[in-house]
Amino acid sequence: MNNFMLSQFITLLRREVSEHKNLFIWAPVVLGLLIFVVDFLIINALTEVDKARAVEWLARYFDGGNPVDMSAVFVFHTLPFMLILHFCAILYLNTTLYQDRRDSSILFWQSMPVSNLATVISKVVAITAIAPLFYVAVIFVLYAVGILWLIFSGMALGIDVSGLGYMFISAVWSLPVVYLFALTSAIWLLPMVGWLLLFSAFANRTPLIWAIGVLVLLLFLEGFIFDTQFLSNWIQTRSDPDNFIIVEYGGLMDRLFSYDMFIGIVVGSILIAGAVYMRRFID
Amino acid sequence: MENIVHARGLTKLYGNFKALDNVDLDIPQGAISGLIGPNGAGKTTTLKALIGLCDVEGELEVAGRDPRGARHKLMEDVCFIADVGILPKWLKVRQILDYVAGVHPRFDRSKAEKFLATTEIPVNKRVKELSKGMVTQLHLAVVMAIEVRLLVLDEPTLGLDIIYRKEFYDRLLNDFYDGDRTIIISTHQVEEIEALLSHLIFINKGKIVLNSMMSDLAEIYTEVVVAPDQTQQAEALKPIHIRKLLGKSCYTFESVPRVQLEGLGELYTPSVADLFVAKLKDHRDE
Amino acid sequence: MKDKILKNRYTLLGTALSVYVLVLVLEGALTGRQHEWWLIDNSLLEMDLRQAIDMGNIDVDF
After folding, report:
1. What is the ipTM of this complex?
2. Contact across the interface for B99 and A11, Cβ inside 8 Å
């Protein structure tokens, strides 16, 4: 890959982010604000005594602890963000190769020397690797503001808050794990990414209904014609929540280098290739 | 002069409908070529085929490549404006310049910005906030700043005010065209571009009806305003079209030497518009 | 062959889906894949739902 292809690819990524600010930036920000407000209200409802006890407990719990061991808690708390990210990803993948055919803007995009392959790959990279960056940034701000607030509250109540410093380091330490968690889940779900992109590129109307409808149809047909359950098993394995609840590096490594991950990448690539070729059918 | 477009036997079927029926085309480099035809004649299909947006059967070479292969490579040398209003509505003007600068190796941003400075387009507005005429200006500004060999325009001024339309062709001729670049314009408003063209193509019902350099037209086509007493002799020479003009009849002839027509009345070279009507209603097919 | 597959969007979709199903069926047949939904094994907890239901109480390892 030469320099121009790389800078072209970066331009494509920037386009995806600009075009979908709602999903990439506003969704996590709104969620972060929501969580902050709810936590604020809950804590305010506590008595001064309870508040002091809570801060004290936290400071002592984290004091002197190994940030690496303690970071699992922080990864766990990002689950709402991960849920929203997955939901946004489904919306994004479903419409991204469909919308520009609907409003004819595809005629502009196709007048530029950008290959169909680069276009589709940039969308895959944007949602799997770039979107989580924004989410992690919002999470960082949320944790930082939250812990700072605890520190100042604690200091005002005369509590030794040095343990909260350890809490902060733990929280920061969890962020790369959260990012890798999102990235690994996305790669694990590459077949779904490919499936959505394929129907996004194929459908002239209601791509989501096509994507779901054909899947249901195939499941039914397999059972009816062959009396087998391979597709059903495959989908069950893919969607098993075990693969999404990863809170530490060890869990990530297991998932990343497993056979299931590999076969998922192969199958996902087949579907993504289908989406790339599908781009040539504009009318 | 080499041809920038070479096509033989282009055919496109939509079910049973023949959008393109065995189309042969040769367009020389440096031409300003007009693709004229009624609605549904196959203009858009032809142009889309040339830029790789429509799969057709037949032999096709544009700027040295087959558009059905690597379209994106072809887009380095070719650009097109397909209809008004295909610029993405959510993009800001500045973002369009950023994007094209980032993906196109032959885009000169300062050129586009200079052009835009002469318009009233605010750089920070989104495309959806611009008027139709401004969107066309913007698109033209971008396209003219790219070092293309061929520019394909599909009804670029459709629905625009006359001021924007005139300015469009003005800029195209004065700032973009340099004798080396080729422009192909499709339109059903013949009169507007008649004066610009050096090459002419008529298309009707998916078939090419005429394909000629403008300079050759006078040798091939002649219009004669025939006096009533000469009509029999005129008809014997097999005109392709007859129309009434202020009480007299105007006969159009194809490939009939002017010497044979001299006695019948005043001779003219038909305008593109009149020639278009004549070819479409060619009596000899009946 | 390429022309037949790329003839229109329907032939392409048909081909892509056929390859997809073929690969999955082969994979399933070769590896004897069966999804044991009653096993839970992730970073947080590990349990066997069948055992838990059989015994009438939940046995959980954190």
Report:
1. 0.89
2. yes
